[in-house]
Write a structure and sequence with these properties.
Helices cover 48% and strands 13% of the residues. By secondary structure, the protein is α+β, with helices and mostly antiparallel strands.
Length: 482
């Protein structure tokens, strides 16, 4: 099993990551990434713990050695449940705040590998490449992140009609031993601290876009690959003042391919618009990857409910009828998502020997996540009032004897001293209101893409045959005699 120390050592590989106009020499030491990398390392240590072997691993079909369950291709409902328990254990270690932990893209590749015939439609070599790479990542516990959304340059035009054909990441040269990629893709969450980047496109491409219709993988340290992360939130302040930002900011990056070479064995779809579009729906990849995403999201919602309850207990509002009503609404929405997550398993169907998570349960949850998540945050804010914006300027204020007595007297709660109350409120602020919290609000709003896309997918997969049969029965009810 790969340990956290193994993972951290592997990150010091000469990768090109740029922050504040400078190249990062070592992401494991740089303040923008250091703690996030350690949070991922902790996940590896959890997976490798002997006492958790049954929950966190299964035997590799190739080597017989234990490998992380995130790579398991489910064939039964019990297999999918086992994957959920694995991902739940990891999600709880990060409070559901690291959306692109290593088990996320692992789910996508497990879904790909479950349907090799799909990739073989363009040539058996592509299916062989895909399965071999999946096995390599599975058996070596690789952390792969993905960049699957084109840059927002001119969305009124398809990729091949952009002002420069190399703005979007695509093929610029074909060689006997592989292809050369140039252009940009976003948004590579976790890319700066992962091992590989999976490049593909989740948006439907058009005829003429063939150069951009690829599915491939490259090491983060590959020559010609550069990562431009957004502003890091982990440096906002001390861990006492920003307990979540300082630990779980996984970062999001533009990925720049500057004539990056990709050998054929790392290419799974090549210049094929149809396969590029269908990889997400004609294999279980999108469902398995987002099964992990929903496990992570439900864990985060439980954390939110726990924070709100603890805040109300501390402020003495827990029995107020208005607060009970708001908490009931919050808990209702959290429970709906948990039930829909479990429905992935109970309503899942077996196709060609593979258990596919329920399409309707996933798309229904994804369609409403952008709306319900905003409402849950609003309920939380309504209960909090000014509680988390009337705090000392920083944890250092407690160390100043000139003001410490005032803080202790006026900023305490009925059931807790000032230090305890401020610690909780800072945790809540970091969850709700800091740059880190605001990024999460935006992140969850578009986690499944625009909500109309998920709604369209749900519409396409809904069982209208069964619903229509009820209508037919109602229309053909026999006449009622007197």
């Amino acid at each position: 099993m790969r340990t956290g120390a193994d993972y951290l050592r592997a990150l010091n590989d000469g990768r090109r990551v740029f922050v504040d106009g400078e190249a990062v020499k070592d992401v494991t030491a740089h303040p923008a990434f250091r703690q996030a990398a350690r949070s991922i390392a902790n996940l590896y240590d959890i997976a490798a713990a002997p006492e958790l072997r049954e929950r966190m691993t299964f035997a590799s079909p190739k080597t017989g050695q234990p490998v992380q369950r995130g790579w398991q291709i489910p064939k039964t409902h019990a297999d999918l449940r086992a994957r959920r328990l694995f991902s739940e254990t990891w999600a709880e270690a990060t409070f559901g705040l690291m959306g692109r932990a290593p088990d996320h893209v692992a789910g996508f590749f497990a879904g790909y590998a479950a349907a090799p015939k799909f990739f073989a439609a363009a040539g058996q070599k592509f299916a062989d490449n895909l399965v071999a790479f999946y096995e390599f990542m599975r058996d070596n516990h690789i952390y792969c992140s993905y960049a699957i959304v084109p840059p927002q340059i001119d969305r009124s035009k398809p990729a091949h009609q952009q002002s420069d054909p190399t703005l979007y990441a695509g093929v610029v040269k074909e060689r006997d031993d592989g292809i050369v990629i140039s252009g940009a893709q976003q948004l590579a969450t976790g890319g700066a601290i992962s091992d590989y980047i999976h490049l593909s496109c989740i948006q439907p491409l058009q005829p003429g876009d063939e150069n951009y219709a690829n599915c491939l993988a490259v090491p983060v340290a590959a020559e010609g690959l550069k990562l431009y992360p957004r502003k890091p939130y982990s440096r906002a302040g001390s861990a006492a003042d920003y307990p979540l930002s300082s630990r779980f900011d996984e970062s999001d990056s533009y990925v720049i391919f500057d004539n990056a070479f990709v050998p054929w064995e790392r290419v799974f779809i090549y210049r094929n618009v149809e396969l590029s579009r269908d990889q997400w729906r004609k294999t279980p990849s999108h469902l398995l990857g987002n099964h992990q995403a929903q496990v992570r999201y439900v864990t985060k919602l439980r954390f939110m409910a726990g924070l709100a309850q603890r805040m109300n207990e501390m402020t003495g509002n827990i029995a107020q009828p208005a607060v009970v009503g708001l908490m009931g609404e919050l808990c209702s929405l959290v429970s709906i998502y948990e039930a829909m997550l479990l429905a992935h398993e109970t309503m899942g169907t077996i196709e060609d020997g593979i258990l596919w998570p329920s399409k309707t349960a996933f798309y229904a949850a994804s369609a409403m996540q952008s709306e319900f998540n905003g409402r849950m945050l609003e309920v939380f804010r309504e209960m909090a009032g000014a509680a988390f914006i009337t705090l000392p300027s920083s944890d250092a204020d407690f160390g100043n004897p000139e003001i410490a007595a005032d803080i202790a007297r006026y900023m305490r709660a009925g059931s807790a001293d000032a230090k305890t109350r401020v610690k909780l409120m800072r945790l809540i602020w970091d969850f709700l209101g800091s740059e880190f919290g605001s990024r999460h609000a935006q992140y969850e709003k578009f986690y499944g893409g625009p909500s109309f896309v998920a709604k369209q997918n749900l519409y396409r997969n809904f069982d209208f045959k069964r619903a229509g049969a009820l209508v037919d029965r109602a229309l053909n009810l026999p006449a009622i005699s007197d």
